[in-house]
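call fold(seq) -> tokens
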Amino acid sequence: MIDAELAALIGGDNKALGLGVIVFKDGREVYSYFGGRRHLAPDKPMTRGTLLRAASLSKMFTVFAIMQLIERGKLTLGDDVSNHLGFELRNPNFPDVPITLEMLADHTSSLRDGLIYSLPPHYKLEEFFTAEGKHFTTTEPGKYFHYCNLNYGILGTVIERVSGERFDFYQQEHILKPLGINGGYVVSNFDAETFAQLGTLYQPDGYGGWVATIDDYEVQPPKNFIRVQNPYAPNAYGSFDVSNYAIGTNATIFSPAGGLRLSLEDLSKALRLLINRGKPLISQESFDAMINPYWTFDGTNGYTFGGVMENYGLGTYQIGGTSKARLCEDYAIDLIGHSGEAFGMISGLYFVPHTQNGVTFMINGASLAAGRFSACYLLEEVIMNPVCKYIFGSDCDEIAAM
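ret:
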């Protein structure tokens, strides 16, 4: 029954080119589905091992690194980020108010994205910030939620400066490898077998087909070459050799906000980490700090994307089962995790609090049609509804009965 509903999402208007879903219940995998394509011409299927640029759920992995460094006594959430950057980062409208690591991680830093939030390696991070305040809002740091990818480019740079390791290398050694994850940030450095599983991201072309947006490679790029990734300006800059990149100067080149390539198999391992409350990467105390909402919408103190994000922790947010952000129509199922959307990808990685249940999905070539019953995308609703109905529903209250 679920297979048929998911297969119906592939192809045509308001549908997807390819998708994959993995569901856990009571701590074990109980369902998976993979359908459609990861590449056109030549035709390649979407599989459990297909790696795709996972978009903003990558932020969770950046925060895992921050929490590790906090546990090692290298950082605290209240640190003035200027103390770790080598230059003073202040909103010129509030020059006496420090911008902290917590503010960056929970998007209350008062920073804002432009079309560009990833720069080539020969630029320095401070070149984003000018006296006229191009990348700053007029709200005081710590007071207002304004989702900003640049926050995570700064966090990536802090990780480099504190650890002494290049961002992608730190993540590979301390985050991905311990989880048994094959993906990474620099596709040119994948081994041949992993690169062969890399999928191309596509967007609908408006005429019933798709156009490639990123990772459309005929051959693997030379080692240490990386494309600058700006979803709002996809053709800006091109690719660069990071072999001689100066660690701690500009980790935005590695896209800590969204550039992690992962497979559904990789995401299943991350989902198990969520269900296990951070083990084996971080302590349960650190994990609880990540999922705790540091910001909660009070009606005026943030931009919520129409109700999608009404709270935010550290690289995670909570979805109330009856809220505008809910992904299940008929069942009140709370979720904690993160979504992603960029270059034609919609992704999600969530666990159900107080259970060992969870779900992860990736949708390639995704339509961005608005949802029918929520503030989310239609495809998020229709991929989650059968999961809620047939797998999670027996454990949850029906909304109509509440």
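The chain has ten helices and 15 strands.
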